[in-house]
Amino acid sequence: MAGLFIISFSYLLLASHAVRGGDGGLAVFMIGSAGLAFTRERWAGNVSAVLLGCGSFLWIDKGVDLISLRIGLGGDWIRLTLIVSALFAVTLFSAAYCFSTAGRERFNRSREQGWFRASIFLLTALLLEITRSRVSFPILLADRFFPGWGRAEIFLLALYASWLGGKMFSPEGAKVMRPRI
Description:
mainly alpha, single chain
């Protein structure tokens, strides 16, 4: 239960950072990813490990910028360094927990599909984010109607792709799902 708390807490910290930056879609992505941690599916644990690992380095990137700004302005930067270091450590610990023995026990359902479905989720999210950032016009429907909320749609599409991949994992499942999609 402590592991679930630390994972959720790390995601909520990342979501609050996104909200502070005005990116509600990314906040929804992070909160949705925190919700995945409650499923006990192995692929959700793998996704959490990767996302939180990347999120921990976000704290380093933002921390370096803010600390440089504070030093340049002659302000107090030591307390900020301690705060950013704690955020980095907590988020990195959360990512490492997903691969620990306790994390593997926590995320114990559908182990055979773990990396398969996690890869589908992560690749879908990554490719849609690259496409979204490279195109000069809003390519995602959510961005067209609600500017800045495309990452929420990316989360839903990645979740759908992972679910669909899980259904088509076995030849029997593919026979059933292929005609439907």
